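Lab manual, section 2.4: Encoding a predicted structure.

Procedure: take the sequence of the chain (164 residues), apply the prediction step described in section 2.3, and record the output as structure tokens. A sample record is shown.
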Amino acid sequence: MAPLEPEFVEQTGLAESTLEQHVLKILYFRGDVYRQDLSNAIGLRFRVTQEIVENLKLRHHIQIKKSLGVGNVASLFSLTETGRTPAREYLESNRYAGPAPVPIEQYVALVPQQRPREGWLTKLKADNGIYLIDDLGRQRATPGEVLEPLDRPDGAAGRLPKLF
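Recorded output:
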């Protein structure tokens, strides 16, 4: 379960200025970045970040150092000296420069949907007081039943310390 991927800046739930700051911080840390790599770093589609990149170019905060083809997809971007100053200022208040954050409203709405369904984990008591966990329904037993240690083909241990 994940939030729907935005198609436009407005659908991100973030202010355009927040995304601009994010782009500047990513370029500050990474140096020269190809356009597609910038989109991947911020975690948004090329189309979503296109407007942000164009605004930063118009304000001379970023520049195209070289282009490998037609359009901005294969362009190599870097900060200008004009862009380096605000990037440093933004980093003083927040050093995060990874994928764009999810607005808290989306986060709060999605977390309850990610909860496992009732009964996804079953405690099983073994003869030596160690509990075994029903591994995706591969071994079924009722509580209190004596079980042999699991021999799993993936090499994982079949017995776990008493955690419950």
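Check your result against the sample. The CA atoms of residues 26 and 77 lie 11 Å apart.
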